[in-house]
Write the structure tokens for this entry.
Amino acid sequence: MPQPGSATVRSRVRIPLTFPDGYRAEAEVFTFHGLADGAEHLALALGTVPDGGTPLVRLHSECLTGDVFGSDRCDCGPQLRESVELISEAGGYLLYLRQEGRGIGLYNKLDAYALQDSGLDTYDANTALGLPEDGRDYTAAAQMLAALGIDGTGGMDSTGSRGGIDLLSNNPDKAAQLGRLGVTVRRRVPTGVHLSASNVRYLTAKVERTGHSIELSRLVG
């Protein structure tokens, strides 16, 4: 895969975060110039990476229904909350990517929900609409990491941390794409299992169809 062109930091601002359960964190939020897809992605710097340590990074795709409205049809909201806490403890970045519905957009995602209610899984519902199962491209994420000074080659980066990242994700495609884009993923750290009666079919499809590392077997009998 061709390596992405460079992006630059456009602005940075500190924002205090408070979640519905009362958890609080301090984030430094970065915006960017020159991202390949032209979208308004954000990077949240959380915590402090220890000297010689490896930043913990999550690529979190925007989910209005889960992140904002608390939908139980997915696990996005709980993953976002968990990620902020884990990254704040370890030091690193949460990349908030404007990729609603695995890249198909909000209205199409809601249309896919209607098809899921008729029996299709989350991937087949997308393709029934003539859309990709997963349309996300992480070129902009690799650009953002480079602009933040993360050395993708595995050497020491400009922040004084060991190069590369620890990737907070259950999705093997994220690690694979970043690797092809020149980012060294030292290890993939799974998120927790955020299971509900409304998302069990969704999570099962992610495990069975795209190899997500979600330990459902001990929770679903």
